[in-house]
Amino acid sequence: MTDDGTNPPNVTLEEIARAAGVSPSTVSRILNGSARVLPEKRRAVEEAIARFNYRPNVLARSLASGKTNTIGVLTQTVSSPFYAEWLRGIEDGLLEPGFTALFVSSRWNVNDEKSRMEEFIARRVDGIILLHAQLDEPSLIEYSRHAPLLVLGRSVQNTGSLVGLPIDNLQGARDATRHLIEQGHREIVFIAGPPNHEDAIERMDGYRLALEEAGIGFDRDRVEQGDYLETGGLAAMERLLTRDLSFSAVFCANDQTAYGARLALFRHGLRVPDDISLVGFDDLPTSSYMTPPLTTVRQPTYEIGRLAAQGIVRMIRKTSIALSPIPLTLVTRETTRRNEPTSTPKDSRA
Q: What percent helix, strand, coil does the chain show, rounded to 5?
């Protein structure tokens, strides 16, 4: 802002330098955070910037440095409360090192995912974070030749420019199923996630493994297909309730599925946990406010997002990085209880 209260157009770096009594290169280094100057010189530059309301030409600076200070973040859907926490963690984690996140979604479509990756590369982003990528590994390796690439929620070959941050879905699902078994449940149905999702497959494997370890045979009839959405959980539970099938507990592949399953049980007059115990996966912020509060497997999604942000910055700066699978934690709330041997869930409206 000038002395007469106007906002001058196209204020240049040279004018800022002249007003502060320093060289343009000194102003540039201060803006880039790389200058070691006397406190009075830095103060003079900061005062000139404030007085003229100077905004650096980001495009010009990126052309000069070859860096855009932008991270491309590809999620599958921005509307999911699960992904929202990851994105918030990524955005917050990029603030301090001075990077801006560019968020796009591919809606679980591999062709859309390819298009978004091409857009990131065309925009010359400094790095890319992928959440639950559908692309095959050779494609990921090829894209990583253009920009460092960190894949969240998946194991990949670590090439230096391509790094995976896996999540231990199998162990989380195993712990959830074992919790139900320890509560005396042996007839446990499972509402699965989309069959083409790696994390959904791992959760199915964890469910199966816990049953086998407890000497309970895996029964495909006790598995119903879901889609990670509330509507899918509702429909899957309705299908389970129409079968000639007894069960005392339900393990859902994610919390949103559990919300839908809970509604179906309510509509059939079945109480949670008195008639049916219910377990989810993810621990969404709303799960502790469900009626009753949901027992679930907690993914520290916000913290994982921050860790991914730190990881991609280290890759850009060519600092060593080693990421281990993220452990998950079972959070026991009020939707599970010990199974009474004499109780057999039935639709009260039958």
A: 45, 15, 40
